[in-house]
Amino acid sequence: MTNNWDSAIQSLSQITIYSNPNNEPVTIQGSSDELRCVGVGTDAAVFQSIHVPAYAFKLYAEDRLSKIEVEREVYRLIGDSDYFSTCYASYKRFLVLSYEEGHTLYDCLLQGIHIPEQAIEDVERARDYVRSVNLNPRDIHLKNILLQNGKAMILDVSEYVKPGNDYRWEHLKKAYDDYYHLIDSKSVPFWLLETIRKWYNHWNKYASSFEDFMKYVLKHTTFKK
């Protein structure tokens, strides 16, 4: 039986993904004129084929291939939900997902696109739903949330089988509630977002409170109350 996405498999074979230390985004080696990269994470990169644009292909780093079946199972448990992509199939190196239009919240900050409260509420509802199917909603951050027609869709579910709370969403929500008005609909420079991301990753290991972290950010950036 031929799948709709089979035409993309040869193109995907021309690309290799490598992970990087310190939770940095993966490196992409190789290319194909028939694919465009639509997302880059710390475990994988996501591609869309010009021939079958309805699908997204999540191609994993060579040392992260064990995560593919884990994520496939998470999608199976989540089932049909407006808050998540659909997973159609898994292969040795990649997942086949539904392609979702929209901007990540990270891109919204870069481009000055307003992030409505509805999107934040949607993530809260999505997290409740994930818990209802006995999974643990973790690793929810700016690059994993898509703004789609004013509503939120969550893109990466690979850590939902891990225990514990990483508090990334709680911190992001608090930053939205307390500080987003300072930058609402303003373009935030890429270098500044990346600086804050690296500060956060470092702080998250050593600092005492999120409030202390935000005081540091406000002191060392141009954000003012």
TrEMBL record:
Which keywords annotate this record? Kinase, Serine/threonine-protein kinase, Transferase
Q: Which GO terms of the molecular function aspect are on file?
A: protein serine/threonine kinase activity
InterPro entries reported in the protein's UniProt record: Kinase-like_dom_sf
Taxonomy, superkingdom: Bacteria
Q: What is this protein called?
A: Serine/threonine protein kinase
Whose protein is this, by species?
Aquibacillus koreensis
